[in-house]
Amino acid sequence: MAESVPGSWRGVVNHYKVCSGEVQAYFADVPTLIEGFDWEVPLGFMFTRLEKAHNVMLYCGAVKHHRADTEVARNFVDQHHMTRKEFHRLFKNVFGKPIKAPLRNMLEEAEAVRDKVVHGKTASAVDKRKAIVRILDYAEGMNGFVCDIAGFKPFTNDLRGFTGRRAALDKSTTSWLMRGLGFEQRKAEEAS
Question: I need a surface site. Which of 19, 85, 135, 177 has the fewest CB within 10 A?
């Protein structure tokens, strides 16, 4: 699935339409953006949603996998300066496994195009279509991978009940847990 690149915007929309309902709902505005704007617009939107899913992934993993207090976990994830390298490090710490190489390769391929676009460099329409398709394939793959290891899907709009009925750790213990997982909590004056 990750090998082909559609030859037109219709092909990209068709690729979107064969994605799972969760991924389609998560990226619901993509077909409209593809049809109505330059490739940069849907690409930028998709990376915004992708980064949101990465944060949700780490938050949900800490809460579900490690029983972290939801408020404290949310604060740590929100305040942590997240780079690509940091995300991969934290993912491994939270879930106990690194992201599978094929998924990581899909993401890196899309990120290379995103970097060109965001920094005003030349990226062909083919590259941009490929990046959008790779993000969709990555979202599908990560939903399956994270569901297998942690029981939830990060690329979805509905995470109700993802924690189950387990009692959470207290706030103080969660704070130490989050530090142990590698999150840093910046002070309010540093965050602004």
Answer: 85
Walk along the chain (192 residues) and give the pLDDT tens digit of each residue: 446 788 888 999 999 999 999 999 999 999 999 999 999 999 999 999 999 999 999 999 999 889 999 899 999 999 998 899 999 999 999 999 999 999 999 999 999 999 999 998 999 999 999 999 999 999 999 999 999 999 899 999 887 666 666 777 888 998 999 999 999 876 544 443
Backbone angles phi, psi at 95, to 5 degrees: -100, -10
Global pTM? Answer: 0.91
Total domain count, the chain: 1
Q: Is residue 90 part of a domain?
A: yes
Residue 173 domain-assigned (yes or no)? yes
Cβ contacts of residue 8 below 8 Å, gap of 6+?
Answer: none
Look up the domain containing 87 and give its range: 9-191
Whether residue 1 is contained in a domain is answered as no
Amino acid at 109: E
